[in-house]
Every structure is written in structure tokens, then in C-alpha cells.
Design a protein that fits this description.
The protein is an alpha+beta fold. It has 7 helices and 6 strands; from the N terminus they run αααβααβαββββα.
């Protein structure tokens, strides 16, 4: 029966879609392919199989697949929803990436903290990685997208603020690469949850009239858009640090 055959094909394709969507991040973490391959080729193949699975599930329902039994009907509805999600989610990510076409964020656009200890690690993955924040290219865009990001004023002396800043970084699971209490600098990196992409972070503390000023910079090692991850990390860190000193 045509409806039964298309239902079986849809089930095979939705299984392939699930495997492809898992293969992207797992393959990248295992260094089987690059970030670009994981995000474009593997994901694109998953979108194609997902779309085909949804179309076949719909065709099976129209051809009378619902008559086979309630279990088959439920399966076809799940396949239809799963296939639609496999198409819709990457498109949503693509739209967000177009809205946020940058992956380097800081609380001090004019004189952002620069990478020092992390720079060799960044250049190992991206040879053209710069130590300094490109304010001319990114400043206006960041002000528009993240108007809330600015320096954090801490009601503590630099030594106390540095200890709290280091503790907050560790509490968030960051890997500390360098720390310099005298200069008020911390360099660390963090990984995204799904793909395990590495984002590099600099925390800079400086004394001012109200206590200590804290500036943060968070930048991804790969890709063009961070989908808002670096700004979210800075906001979370500021909240954790402020809570420790208030």
C-alpha cells in the first residue's frame, strides 16, 4: 500500500535527520570536521532529510495512512512535526546570525581589553585573529544591538574585587589561562554547550573613585556570528560578580 510505504520511508528519513543533527556537534567535538562543515554541510543535509520526511509523512496521511492504525497516525504526526522543526530551527538560527553578524563583544568599546595569553590559542584556530577589539567595524553595531552593556562598578578595592572576579569566573566553569592581580587582568575561555565552540574572555579591573571598574570582553574563536552568546555570558558574569560584592 502506498500510504504504508511512504510512512516507512518517512520514518527512515526522520531517523536519518536526527542522526545528522547529532552528528554536527559530535563530529566537531571529535575533530572529525570543521565548524563550517558542522554548521553548513551536515546541518544542510539534515534540513533536506527533515523536509523530505515531513513531505512523505504528509503524503502518507493524505493517501490514507491514518487508516492503518492510531499508532501509525501518531507516528506520522510526530514525523511531520519533527521534519518541520528540522527545517524551521536552522532557518531561525540563520535569521539570528544575520541580525548579529559579529562574535566579539565588550563592555568598553573605546578601549576594550586585549588578548595576551590567549592570543596564541586564538591564532592557532584563526591565524588572522587580532589582539585588539575592532571598534571601527564593530562599535556602532554593538551599541545598537547591546545598548545595556557597559562597565560594571564594584563597591570594593581592586584587591578584593580581583579575588571576587576570579572566584566568579571559576564558579561559571571558565578555564583560567592567566591571572595577574597586579594588573587586574584575568584571561579565560569557556565552551558553548552544544557544539563546544571556544569563546575567549578577558576581565580587566581598574581602580576608580567609587571602588573598582570591571570591563569584560568575550570573543568566539571561530565563526562570524555568536548568536548572542558572548553578550549573554558577559551579562551573567556581571550578575554573579556583583552579587558577590553587594
Amino acid at each position: 500500500m502506498l500510504a504504508e510505504t511512504t510512512a516507512h520511508l518517512a520514518a527512515i528519513l526522520i531517523l536519518a535527520t536526527a542522526l545528522l543533527m547529532l552528528a554536527g556537534p559530535i563530529g566537531y567535538r571529535l575533530r572529525l570536521w570543521s565548524a563550517i562543515t558542522a554548521l553548513t554541510k551536515v546541518t544542510a543535509l539534515g534540513v533536506v532529510t527533515g523536509a523530505l520526511a515531513a513531505l512523505l509523512a504528509l503524503a502518507s496521511l493524505i493517501a490514507g495512512g491514518w487508516r492503518i492504525g492510531p499508532g501509525t497516525t501518531a507516528m506520522l504526526v510526530v514525523i511531520l512535526a519533527g521534519g518541520a522543526a528540522a527545517v524551521a530551527l536552522p532557518l531561525r538560527v540563520k535569521r539570528r546570525a544575520a541580525f548579529l553578524p559579529f562574535n566579539d563583544v565588550t563592555t568598553d568599546i573605546a578601549t576594550a581589553p586585549s588578548f595576551e595569553a590567549l592570543l596564541p590559542l586564538r591564532r592557532a584556530e584563526r591565524p588572522d585573529a587580532a589582539a585588539h577589539y575592532d571598534a571601527a567595524r564593530l562599535g556602532a553595531l554593538q551599541r545598537e544591538r547591546y545598548p545595556d552593556l557597559g562597565p560594571l562598578q564594584l563597591p570594593a578595592k581592586p584587591a578584593e574585587a580581583f579575588a571576587a572576579a576570579l572566584t566568579a569566573a571559576r564558579a561559571l566553569g571558565w578555564t583560567i589561562v592567566a591571572q595577574d592581580k597586579a594588573r587586574g587582568r584575568i584571561e579565560a575561555y569557556d565552551r558553548t554547550r552544544c557544539y563546544g565552540f571556544v569563546d575567549d574572555i578577558v576581565v580587566r579591573l581598574s581602580a576608580d573613585e567609587s571602588g573598582t571598574r570591571c570591563d569584560i570582553r568575550s570573543a568566539s574563536r571561530v565563526g562570524i556570528s555568536d548568536l548572542g552568546k558572548n553578550a549573554a555570558r558577559i551579562r551573567r558574569y556581571r550578575a554573579v560578580l556583583a552579587a558577590r560584592l553587594t
